[in-house]
Amino acid sequence: MTPDRTSPENDWPGLLCDNARTGGQGIRPARAPDRVRWHIRTAGAVRSAPVLRGGVLYVTSMVGNLHAIDIEKGRQIWGFQASKPIHSTPSLSGNRVLFGSDSGKVYAVASDSGKAVWEAAAEAEVWTSPVIRDGTVFFGGADCRVYALDVDTGNKRWTQELGGRIYSTAYVSEQHLYLGCSDGKVYCLDVSSGKTVWATATGNGIDSSPALAGNTVLVGSEDFFFYALDATTGSVRWTYETGLGISSSPAVAEGVAVVGSKDGFLYALEIEGGKLRWKVRISDAVTAPPVIAAGLVCIQAGGTQAFDLATGNSAWRVGLGGAVQSAPVLTGDAIYVATNDGEVYALA
Amino acid sequence: MDRRTFVKASCLGSASLFLEGIDPKTFGDVTLPEPPPIQVVHGVRPEKSSLGMPGLFPGRVVEVSHSESIVRNRVSQPVIRGMIERGMKELTGEPSLRAAWAKFVEPSDIVGIKINPSGAPACCSSPEIVREIIDGVRSVGVPAGNIIIYDRYEYEIDVGSYPVLIPPGVRVVGIQDGLADSGYDPNVYCQATFFGEWENRSYMARIVSQGLTKIINVPTMKDHSASGVTGCLKNLGYGTFNNVARSHRSPFSFTDPLIGVMCSVEPLRSKAVLHIMDGMRQVWHGGPLTQVQEFIYQAGILYFGTDPVAMDTVELETIEQKRREQGVPSVWEHSPESITADAIEFYHNPHKNLFHRRPSHIASAGKLGLGVADLKRIDHGRIRLA
Known about the structure:
The complex is a heterodimer of chains A (348) and B (386). Chain A is mostly beta strands and 348 residues long. Chain A has strands at residues 36-41, 51-53, 56-60, 65-70, 75-81, 91-93, 96-100, 105-110, 116-121, 131-133, 136-140, 145-150, 156-161, 171-172, 176-180, 185-190, 196-201, 211-213, 216-220, 225-230, 236-241, 251-253, 256-260, 265-270, 276-281, 291-293, 296-300, 304-308, 314-318, 329-330, 335-338, 343-347. Chain A is globular. By secondary structure, chain B is α/β, with parallel strands linked by helices. Chain B has one domain (38-46, 57-384). Helices cover 27% and strands 23% of the residues of chain B. In chain B, the strands form four sheets. In chain B, strands 3, 6, 7, 8, 11, 12, 13, 16, 17 and 18 form a ten-stranded mixed beta sheet that branches. In chain B, helix 3 (127-139) links the parallel strand 6 (111-115) and strand 7 (147-151). The longest helix of chain B has 19 residues, at 308-326. The chains are: A mainly beta (348), B alpha/beta (386). At the A-B interface, loops of A face helix 4 and helix 5 of B.
């Protein structure tokens, strides 16, 4: 029987799976791929992660393209050309695809036609992925500001200036927004006003995008440490030191946070107390975020690799998928990866 | 000005250009091929200035070290601040740090900071040093928006997380990726056929030929599998022109004379006014890309100068000394037994290399007037802060 690849169960509408950035807490099965179902080449390098909805994969590239790709045929349905490179992972909301660009513009593009619906402008590049919650889209920019816009119109609801550039994609909960900043602080902002609830300093800039597990904010810093913060107060619950800076973003599942470090290791840390459950060397430097699915950790570093969540033992590895900041999209019958070289693969 | 120059290999003959006291023939019996002529087409040279290489202080190298500048692989921002202040004052003889920076840049300049991210994250230009340079340039009155951090490959810049680690407003440009400020100037190039390659031109980055008015070079200290070392000259030359990997094909290398020739091309030569070499980490084997910490020495040193040849000469001697201490062959080694085509073996065995290296590019650059390659004529000042 042919699988229904357009099923909503396969949707992967934002960075690390969903628009609330649940940090890759997916439960999608991910079996070892043994073939390339299709392969398509974009016009430029891909530095972002693909997203999926309704049988269409959306991928941005460094020559300013947003590609909509039919996952049945492996063919482009439409393309949208922005004026500058795109580092931002797109997000899907209703029938719109939202993403930032190096021009400072954030675009909302109709997902069926590829036509621009609205665009809004920050004053410097937007590498973060827009996060949509309750009709508001949130994103940070290199102009040091966090923006909250109406998702239907692009009209500004509030902005908040922080102490440095923002490359960390926000985690948005019902009341709060958590993100890292190049001033080395982790910020918690009020969702409705943008006012700072708390800010906790780390020892260097933050590239990593936080995840929330219960009442714990988890994020890496370029100061080599991984932080677990109390989501209510910002107080440090525990830290774990790796061998180099952390720009990878954590995925969380089953009481464990998994994150890569530039020291080449993937770490699994217990969320409760920070105890190391396992670590495994997987590449020269790990900068991409892992995703977790059905007991496996999957990451694009040294190809695309999967590890047993409980033990860290290698489950499978394919040589495709070298990436700086991309992450695979996992579905029941395929894994979609975009690479630094601009290739997009459907692995089955 | 005649923009077109043919550099004759015969006048740069490697046998006549070895560093004083070192005869490359000592290190093996392989006969290295003679390099082909290199045709150079210059860009527009800026107004005549004494700042272009070898700059205000030919033959002078200031070395500043501090034992706490790098601890457990972390570079200390406050310690770096003190080291840069001392080094800049010592180099220029100026009483204030601001006056020292003002020797090289003025408020109307568009300043490029040429980093070396190619070994990121294990060994690349330290963001802590880049931050202090930005502060220094801004202290003279250059706005943040007129300061550009650049290198060839944006993905290497991203791995180093430079955008996250530098102050707001300063731009980061990967020449070869993306759209903004990127690309190469078709009117400025070096042309030579080394191994029969079909594309035999290397073009200068447009940002250098047309955009920047001053360049501050921040190389790292690494041994290099093709050129012997990568320092000021290679960071500038091979980081400014495209299509440079064609200069070395195992086991032979024509990095000499190409590196020096590229650095002599206008306007690169005139715009590169200051070099601050990052010796926080020193790679003594496996460069330029190694991530093997076993061959990376945390030396905690900075070098300051305007003469890239003198600085690279000091660097070469430092790397050679470290290799001697470790009991591994000189970078001048040219024996067939030293060569491997296996990258894994190369990265983990310091007795092996991919190419017969040609560190003589430093002396060749000296012959081109870019600086002083004779260690005995180099004024090498050493300051130990702690």
